[in-house]
């Protein structure tokens, strides 16, 4: 479809210099009420994005309006995000496919994570190019089709998504179902696949990629939503470098490697506890099916801890101390598992609550912290993908630490405890470093001459990178 001619933004701005833009709709009105795409894989409409950014710079709004916009976004986005969950692989499936030994099981888990390592960074680049809704539509569609056909493709198709916490409950019920055509584990994958394919279509239609593409918001509400992002991520960058330049900026940044260590440390635990939890409970003396049911309670507690930590971290604008707290909780759990498994079944099961809650609450804390530490947006996308994809190489090897079922997996618990301590220590170092960088930036900004400050103010509308003295790191 041919493109229509549009006036350059500078000309539009000149033509409207006599008007005010307090309602945040001036520039969007020139381009129409909604963002436009030409075809499925087209880049986001940069002209409309720029219009929303310009409107966001001058829009005026009160706290009541902000709460209304936030509530509309939450109501539209959170239900879709919460439905990303899926069930875990269970022991009944392992036996039907001949995975009856611990060595075969750990090998299967290692193969599972190969897709993460290979595709996490390309997936982030693709998501930025086509938008989150189209990316997740593709990802979930392949995931759903893979669930219908074979299990080993799940590592590839789940790039960018997370498994749910209700897998144990579903598995506990579904593996009991048997017919002349389907076994229990086949029902499990059927139940996985159908909702996933439906969810893929819903995400394509209803999930916005950015505030400017949120069609359920009015032009004024889109400007307010973008203004909130500008404020929360201040100084905000909405431009950036190309992919290769972003990659070079990431690998040359010490913060990238520190975040990599933080993520890799707790990823040892998350990569193993997700799939060994039923096995660990079974080794306490429960049957395979009952072990699936007993996984529910630790996950429910972990779910509450994830939200509690995220809520308090956001309220206090702190990441470092919260990450250290979650690391310490998981560390205590692993120490109990490594020392008391053979002595007390109750203590070992109780320790699993610490491990699940501590490990799973780390993911949103670490990723939100890392996202704040990288700017511009292009570097942020590459940086978070770099951390996740390289850390998931650890996930390939992580299942191999649980090689000693005869010894109650004590060595695996000990190694996981050491990894969590590394996360704790590196988070402390990273928080100290970012605090010093903020102090250095404040001093550098205060030392600027009036002329230099005036030049910075002239660039107020331009992108601000994380090496700019105006940039403030979250600690």
Question: What does this entry look like structurally?
Answer:
It is a single chain. The chain is an all-alpha fold and 475 residues long. The protein has a domain at 243-475: MFS general substrate transporter like domains (Growth Hormone, Chain: A, Up-down Bundle), CATH 1.20.1250. The protein contains 21 helices and no strands. It has helices at 9-15, 26-31, 46-58, 63-82, 91-96, 102-112, 114-130, 132-149, 154-157, 167-174, 184-206, 219-232, 243-251, 254-282, 288-294, 296-316, 320-340, 345-373, 377-397, 410-446, 450-458. The longest helix has 37 residues, at 410-446. The model is unreliable at 1-9, 11-19, 86-100, 150-166 and 235-239 (pLDDT under 50). The chain crosses the membrane at residues 105-123, 135-153, 185-207, 257-277, 289-308, 320-341, 347-370, 382-402, 414-432. Its main location: membrane. Pfam families: MFS_1. Residues 1-28 are annotated as: Disordered. Keywords: Membrane, Transmembrane, Transmembrane helix, Transport.
CATH architecture annotation name of the domain at 243-475:
Up-down Bundle
Element order, helices and strands?
A: HHHHHHHHHHHHHHHHHHHHH
Q: Which shape, going by the Cα principal axes?
A: globular
CATH topology of the domain at 243-475: Growth Hormone, Chain: A
Radius of gyration, taken over Cα atoms and rounded to an integer in Å: 24 Å
Structural class: mainly alpha
Q: What is the highest CATH level, the class of the domain at 243-475?
A: Mainly Alpha
Determine the N-to-C terminus distance.
48 Å
Q: With helices defined by DSSP (H or I, 4 residues minimum), what is the helix count? A: 21
In CATH terms, the superfamily of the domain at 243-475 is MFS general substrate transporter like domains
- Fraction of helical residues: 55-70%
Largest sheet: none
Q: Quick one: how many beta strands?
A: 0
Catalogue the unreliable spans: 1-9, 11-19, 86-100, 150-166, 235-239
Mean pLDDT: 75
Q: In percent, how much strand structure appears in the residues?
A: under 5%
Region (Disordered): 1-28
Keywords: Membrane, Transmembrane, Transmembrane helix, Transport
Transmembrane segments: 105-123, 135-153, 185-207, 257-277, 289-308, 320-341, 347-370, 382-402, 414-432
Membrane topology: Multi-pass membrane protein
């Amino acid at each position: 479809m041919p493109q229509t001619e549009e006036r350059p933004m500078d000309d539009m701005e000149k033509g409207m210099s006599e008007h005010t833009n307090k309602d945040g709709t001036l520039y969007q009105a020139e381009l129409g009420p909604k963002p436009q795409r030409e075809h499925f894989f087209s880049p986001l409409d940069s002209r409309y994005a720029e219009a929303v950014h310009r409107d966001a710079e001058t829009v005026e709004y009160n706290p009541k309006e902000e709460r209304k916009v936030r509530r509309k976004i939450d109501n539209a986005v959170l239900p879709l995000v919460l439905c990303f969950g899926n069930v875990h692989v269970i022991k009944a499936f392992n036996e039907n496919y001949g995975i009856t030994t611990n060595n075969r099981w750990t090998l299967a888990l290692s193969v599972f994570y190969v897709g993460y390592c290979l595709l996490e960074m390309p997936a982030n680049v693709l998501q930025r190019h086509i938008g989150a809704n189209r990316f997740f539509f593709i990802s979930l569609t392949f995931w759903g089709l893979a669930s219908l056909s074979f299990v080993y493709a799940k590592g590839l198709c789940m790039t960018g998504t997370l498994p749910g916490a209700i897998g144990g409950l579903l598995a506990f019920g579904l593996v009991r179902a048997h017919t002349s055509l389907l076994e229990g584990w086949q029902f499990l994958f059927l139940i996985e696949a159908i909702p996933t394919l439906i969810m893929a279509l819903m995400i394509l239609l209803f999930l916005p990629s950015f505030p400017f593409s949120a069609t359920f918001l009015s032009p004024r509400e889109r400007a307010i939503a973008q203004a909130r992002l500008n404020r929360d991520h201040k100084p905000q960058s909405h431009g950036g470098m190309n992919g290769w330049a972003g990659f070079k900026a990431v690998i040359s940044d010490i913060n990238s490697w520190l975040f990599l260590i933080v993520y890799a440390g707790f990823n040892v635990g998350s990569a193993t506890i997700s799939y060994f939890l039923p096995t660990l409970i079974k080794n306490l003396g429960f049957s395979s099916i009952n072990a699936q049911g007993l996984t529910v309670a630790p996950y429910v507690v972990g779910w509450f801890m994830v939200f509690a930590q995220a809520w308090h971290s956001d309220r206090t604008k702190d990441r470092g101390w919260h990450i250290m707290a979650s690391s310490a909780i998981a560390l205590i759990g692993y120490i109990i598992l490594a020392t008391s498994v053979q002595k007390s079944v109750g203590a070992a099961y109780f320790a699993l609550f610490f491990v699940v809650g501590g490990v799973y609450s780390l993911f949103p804390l670490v990723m939100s912290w890392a996202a704040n530490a990288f700017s511009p947006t292009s570097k942020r996308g590459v940086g978070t993908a770099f951390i996740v994809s390289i850390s998931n190489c650890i996930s390939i090897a992580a299942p191999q630490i649980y090689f000693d079922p005869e010894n109650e997996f004590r060595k695996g618990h000990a190694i996981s405890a050491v990894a969590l301590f590394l996360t704790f220590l590196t988070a402390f170092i990273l928080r100290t470093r970012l605090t010093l960088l903020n102090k250095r930036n404040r001093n550098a900004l205060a030392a600027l001459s009036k002329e230099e400050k005036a030049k910075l103010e002239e660039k107020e509308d331009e992108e601000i990178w994380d090496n700019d003295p105006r940039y403030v790191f979250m600690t």
